[in-house]
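Name: Oligopeptide transport ATP-binding protein OppF
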Amino acid sequence: MNHLLTVENLNVIYGHGRDAVHAVKDVTFHIKPGEIFGLVGESGCGKSSLGKTIIRINAPSSGTIDYKGVDVASLKGKELKTYRQEVQMVFQDPYGSLNARMKVGSAIVDVLEVHKIGANTAERRERVTELFESVGLNKDWAWRYPHEFSGGQRQRICIARALALNPDLLVADEPVSALDVSVQAEILKLLEELRSKHNLAFLFVSHDLAVVRNLCDRVAVMYNGEIVEMGDVADVIDNPQHEYTRKLLAAVPSF
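Structure predicted for Oligopeptide transport ATP-binding protein OppF:
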């Protein structure tokens, strides 16, 4: 099977000289079409830096990110715009991810307009209502402001916005960590449904091995900027080889 995304020997360094911070160290992995690939580790281990580099918010210091056979670092102009259409991100904070002064549906209409999806505003508004229904929200709620929604509903809106451009890969950076446990379960179920319906691949970033076990196909364990263990999620969790993985598992109350 051809890989959708291949990361090889990736390094991300912030700053220079003595002040340099080596956030991502020689990381290599791949994601297949339709696969949910987990990236797990404690806060500060480099997970978010890696995710932001994949979507080109950060620039890689060295190494390669290959998407469908193309080097992501080389993309410019129209090609970069197409890549950002196909690879979307859902952020951790559903409160800070939405413009408080803008109706949530209007924000999605703007995204569609920038990428020239839909012939006119009416078609784009219709697309918004479809997206709301696809993430389990009342379509009439699209024309409300962010403060009128709960945290779980806001994260569904952020997922709808990410889906608006029909991506093949979603980078989900701790998408449920700010939510109550019962709401977490609902969002995880939604992600699994979207994967099945659209053959959507995920890079699912989390600090929670219990969540990763329930959702992901494969997992990489990240520690101090490096991947220290990687494999099928059941193999890694049931038979951890690295001491850090065992410590993460020991910190989970119960599966």
